[in-house]
Specification:
The structure is a single chain. The longest helix has 30 residues, at 43-72. By secondary structure, the protein is an alpha+beta fold. The protein has helices spanning 2-20, 43-72, 116-124, 129-135; strands spanning 77-91, 94-106, 140-150, 156-161, 169-171. A hairpin with a 5-residue loop joins β3 and β4. The protein has a domain at 26-33 and 40-109 and 143-177. It starts with a helix and ends in a 10-residue tail after the last strand. α3 runs antiparallel to α4. The chain contains 4 helices and 5 strands, in the order ααββααβββ. It is elongated. Keywords: Signal.
């Protein structure tokens, strides 16, 4: 009987500990759950509303992953893509969604001392050399506040807010966020 009680206690303790552990997942496309549809008299209409929202959100998420891969993969190893704070409405028959978007990335694997700006910092005795060296291979993130419009033909047009205070949307493609020499 004592063994049974001890075994049950151990199983409960293990379940408790595993439920408290933080989740660390690196996913290529982490999406929040779709918004619930507003209550409707017809349950079928509510179900269709939820499916439409989810389909639009998935279309935008897929578009964003592909555009980010085209724009940033020549420069970085892309680790995860996260769409958040998704809000959608229909304007003039087009779907407009405003959302946050995060790209987790890191530099390609190589010895940091072979990178030009780190070599230069080391050669000059720059006090930031060790920090630059240590941070080179660490994961980083890019964060965006965007608006996507699904056009009548199904294509997606992307906009960014260029006004620090207030809102002024301007058309953009993800490669616009790559600094060029």
């Amino acid at each position: 009987m004592k063994k049974v009680v001890v075994t049950c206690f151990c199983m409960l303790f293990a379940a408790f500990v595993s439920s408290c552990a933080p989740e660390e997942t690196v996913q290529e496309n982490a999406l929040p759950a779709p918004k619930e549809a507003p209550a409707a008299a017809d349950a079928g209409a509510a179900l269709n509303q939820t499916i439409d929202i989810s389909a639009n959100q998935n279309k935008i998420a897929s578009y964003m992953v592909e555009e980010c891969k085209k724009a940033f993969s020549p420069y970085y190893e892309l680790l995860a893509f996260t769409l958040s704070d998704y809000e959608e409405k229909t304007v003039d028959g087009k779907v407009e969604a405003i959302f946050g978007y995060q790209v987790k990335y890191k530099n390609f694997e190589k010895d940091p001392d072979t990178v030009d700006y780190i070599k230069a910092a080391k050669a000059k005795g720059d006090p930031r050399y060790q920090q630059l060296h240590d941070e080179y291979l660490q994961p980083k993130e890019m964060n965006f506040h965007l608006k996507a419009v699904i056009e009548h033909n199904g294509s997606v047009t992307l906009y960014t807010n260029v006004k620090p205070k207030g809102i002024q949307w301007e058309k953009v493609v993800m490669s616009d966020f790559v600094l060029k020499k």
